[in-house]
Amino acid sequence: MEQHVRKILIGFAVTLTLILLAALIVPSFIDWNRFKAEIESQARLATGRELTIGGDISFSVLPAPTLAVADVALANIPGASETPLLRLKRLDAQISLLPLLTGKIKIARFDLQQPEIFLEITPEGQNNWTFAATPQAEEASAPATVPETGEANGAAPDIRLDELNIRDGAVTYTNRQTDTQLQITGIKATLSANSLQGPFTIDASVTLNGTALALESSVGNLAGTRATPVTATLDIDSGKGRIDFRGSVADPGPALRVSGAVGASGKNLSALLATLSQLPGSGAPPATLPPFLAQPYHLAFDMTATSDLVRIRDLAARLGDATINGSGAVEIGADTNFEMLLSANTLDLSNWQFANTSSSKPASTNPQADDTAANGGTAAIPATGNSLLPENISGTVGVAVQAVKFNGDFVRDIALDLQIAKGNANLRNLSLNLPGSSKFRLSGAAVATDGKPSFGGRMSFSSESLRQLLAWSGTDISAVPEERLRRLNAKAELNVTPELAQIYALTATLDSSSVSGGLAYALRARPSFGVELKIDQLNADAYLPAAAPPQGATATAKPKSGGTGKSAEPSPLAILDSFDSNFKFSVDALTYQGVVLKALTLNGTLLDGQLQLAQAAIGDVAGASINLRADLKALSSVPEGTARLQLDAKNLAGIATLTGLKLPVPAAQLGAAKLTADFGLSPADGVKSSLDATLGGTRLDARMTVTQLSLSEPAATLERAQLKLDAKLENASLAALSKQFNLPLAPGAGADAPVSLT
What we know:
single chain; 758 residues; mainly beta; 9 helices
């Protein structure tokens, strides 16, 4: 009996062994490719897309269950490009056999070779990554009654992933509506997970639009209620930048809480910014970056973040040897509120290096004037409606720096107080103290009206030692006498839009002079500005260097004749063709070379190389008034146009003294003088002028024409120029004329008569 039972057991064992061997070996001999059609059909039902398996399918159990699939492609949607949504060169998956016998799944290896994903938005706005299952698939997925198991009761299946490898992957995103594209290439990643709840580790590298990124990260076990440790390091472009996070994650889900230390560092901030500018969403890369950014940098702070609050503490930002500290918080919800505070004791910037067409009417100094926006102007700040920023964002920014060392001196007490509310920005204070006991303050508000942003505010400036401030700024004032440029006080209002910057309601005192008026500058490619200034009195002699003693006669070069025009000097007026302007200056009293000039006025417009001088006048100089008007064009080449000069004097004594002119007879004897001179410049007609002058009772009427004189080379063509002069001298009395000029032409008694000389 015992022997019979033994034979039965042996037979059962042999049979079971054969069955197991068959189960392990037979799958290796099955042609799995014959199941391609069924797999593709099921994929089509589930996704609504065509799945194509172009390579072989293989499956084996020994030495471990292994699945391999080659050349897989998932079709794109109609209307998109012909490129498939997904293309995979090969998939290899290996599952450990022994854990399966205990109900555990251990994926020893899962390899994806050359996976390529092509995400696309069509011109009609449809994306290709949203799947729509077929009706048959929806019916097949209807709920069914299943027995309750541990998994059904919420327990996660025991799955372990030893190694997930991605080799030479790529993701391409194309938006055909906006004609933009994002490319992630060279994807190389290794991921492992002890279970679906972690711990996880990942080591990955990609190239994003040409920029290399590398990530190393580990995440602890997410199961339970304790915080899960998380570490992550991101390397940017092979060492140009590095970002580190060391912290924890708690309560995954709606109550997620992240806390930890964040750090960023690199050897050259300028190189990092240039690299980041190539990434999508960063805008156009800057043409040049300030040289001082080419220094090592470091940023560190502690953070705590939940779904509705982000708080930053112990922030330290260092660039070179300069460090600034701070803290901040952002409350996130229907309304977003933020607060940021930055501070520093002393920043030493001594070694920092800072600096590296359209036409329209000139800018107006009137703040209510129409804007002078033109094509080619600066880009407008985005704004919508009457808000510069979204109206649900509010907050404050505060900056306090005790001192900044730069250029051998200190800028002290730098303070910024900025408030954001109801979509607009309120600059409550920006102030700083400069060298020379100088103070600057600015306040105002940035708003948007009908989608157009603007900044309006007030500024003030005072300096007890303007010379010291100018010397610190690098301005050479050695030629200005020491007793001048001492004190300056100024205040003004300003308005800035993307097209125009205006300073108006300006009042200032410089030494003993008072100034009022306004300035405007149009922000466009061609310089364009407006200026209106009124000065009460100015002693120019006090600001000019003392005249140098004569050093002997200086030889005067004789103009060469017969010039061809090829070596002509540029017109001295050419600079006036490089900008546009309207200008209005007035000075009540100007002292120059000991002479007091009163009621000075300069008023005109310069536009597209044409000068319209409405008035250049001196109300009183040495008892005379002078006025000049002109209309000139082609200033950069051969000027042409007209001009009129007028002079009116009770007598010529003052003018003679001022100019050093020796009069043949006493000025009182010559009488009052009036002069009107008209000039005309034309490339075709040469120079034409007329003179209408009266001196006492004598009148001179003259007409002069100069031809064959090249206005582009006047010195070279002077010798061949032809002069035509017509003049007429008149006086109602020969006796009066003789007496006026002490001429020996006095007529006899009763013989006086009018005089007319041509």
